[in-house]
Design a protein that fits this description.
Order of helices and strands: HHHEHHEHHEHEHHEHEHEEHHEEH
Keywords: Carbohydrate metabolism, Glycosidase, Hydrolase, Polysaccharide degradation, Signal
Family: Belongs to the glycosyl hydrolase 10 (cellulase F) family.
Pfam family, one: Glyco_hydro_10
EC number: 3.2.1.8
Number of helices: 15
Distance between the termini: 14 Å
Number of strands: 10
Largest sheet: 8 strands, parallel, barrel
Catalytic activity: Endohydrolysis of (1->4)-beta-D-xylosidic linkages in xylans
Length: 397
């Protein structure tokens, strides 16, 4: 993407004009400073796209405050749940495109870069997709045909309307090998499964960017597994345009250095790098939640002491935590800005705190504060911290 000259402070701007134009000090004082951007998409307009995942209520205006926020702040959207298999094809032959159509139409009407999410995933996929009429697991060829048919109907419907697809989501495990799932068990060959997914996506959405998307990409073993998989696709002549690094991160971890290592490793493959599903969890993480699926939940305990430990700020995030969240986001966006030659998009996973999935995962019913806007769709200190990063960057052009 085109790179933007860094914004100058008022004093530096005035001095520069005086040098170039031979202005007197009085003329310097009269010079009008450049107004700094007040939106995310403006602040990063020459660096990368900035977006959010949205639902049908945002798209059709039922959630008017969120819709207004999206239109003001973002230039790309991702369908949060509306284009996942359980929503699109809940029962055999019964496609429901209305929610997805609403999200895509909203993005197109406002000139946004629209991302479809996701074609191949082991979660939020109806169980019937993996068995025959007698309830027996499909063999490899039958399962691949189910995949082809699904991608033809869904990616084909939105060809020319969706600019990017998360073709495969979370197929690599913590150990760097293919994740155990009904897809893998039925097909029996992870390479074949992924190859066919990208082959079908390229066939039915030929002008759409095709991505692989995963969480925990800072894990060295998972990172190595993703790199191996992408190289396999490239060696087979299959198109993969980018890798999405899900940014479901914590207030302290992973480190900036770990995230940077993965950005560099993926960029070295010659594909775009995207930060997807970005949110910062400020709440305690129960150890028993490790390894849980995204559609599983723990419950808040009845014991008031344990409840307070897991949900410490139900009435609002204290000032010191607001400051920590702002510093964390500032550090992340300083990295993203520095790596803007590799990064094409940064997408938050929802619009404001009240709509975030992190209120329910891994513990249902907590009050979390993971995004840049509060429950009233108002900017938090973290928003101002992110907005300021491009102007603070050292000149490098």
């Amino acid at each position: 993407m085109n790179r933007r000259l860094p914004l100058l402070s008022h004093a530096v701007l005035a001095a520069t004009l005086a040098t170039v134009l031979g202005c007197t000090p009085a003329a310097q004082t009269a010079a009008q400073p450049t107004t700094p951007p007040t939106t995310l998409k403006a602040a990063y307009r020459d660096d990368f796209l900035v977006g959010a995942a949205i639902n049908q209520a945002v798209a059709d205006g039922r959630d008017a405050s969120s819709q207004a926020l999206v239109l003001r702040q973002f230039d790309t959207i991702t369908a949060e749940n509306e284009l996942k298999p359980e929503r699109v094809l809940p029962r055999p032959g019964e496609y429901d495109f209305a929610p997805g159509d609403a999200v895509v139409a909203f993005g197109r009407a406002h000139g946004m870069f629209v991302v479809g999410h996701t074609l191949l995933w082991h979660v939020q996929t109806p169980p019937w997709l993996f068995v025959d009429g007698q309830g027996r697991a499909h063999g490899a060829d039958a399962q691949i045909e189910r995949l082809r048919d699904y991608i033809e109907h869904v990616a084909g419907r939105y060809a020319g309307k969706v600019q990017g697809w998360d073709v495969a989501n979370e197929v690599i495990g913590d150990d760097g090998n293919y994740r155990d799932s009904p897809w893998l068990r039925n097909v029996g060959d992870g390479d074949r499964l992924v190859r066919e997914a990208f082959r079908f996506a390229a066939r039915y959405a030929p002008d759409t960017e095709l991505y692989y998307n995963d969480y925990g990409t800072e894990n060295p073993l998972r990172r190595e597994g993703i790199v191996r998989m992408v190289k396999m696709l490239q060696a087979d002549g299959l198109r993969i345009d980018g890798i999405g690094m899900q940014g479901h991160w914590g207030i302290d971890s992973p480190s900036i250095a770990e995230i940077e290592q993965s950005i560099d490793a993926f960029a070295a493959l010659g594909v775009k790098v995207m930060i997807t599903e970005l949110d910062i969890d400020v709440l305690p993480h129960p150890p028993v939640a490790d390894g849980m699926r995204a559609d599983e939940h723990l419950q808040l305990p009845d014991d008031p002491v344990q409840r307070q430990r897991l949900d410490p700020w139900p009435q609002g995030l204290p000032a010191d935590m607001q400051d920590r969240l702002a510093r964390r986001y500032a550090d992340l966006f300083a990295l993203f800005h520095r790596k803007r030659a590799a990064i094409s998009r940064v997408t938050f996973w929802n619009v404001h705190d009240g709509a975030s999935w992190k209120n329910d995962f891994p513990v249902r019913g907590r009050t979390n504060y993971p995004l840049l806007f509060d429950r009233n769709a108002q900017p938090k200190p973290a928003f101002e911290a992110v907005l300021a990063i491009p102007a603070q960057a050292a000149p490098d052009r």
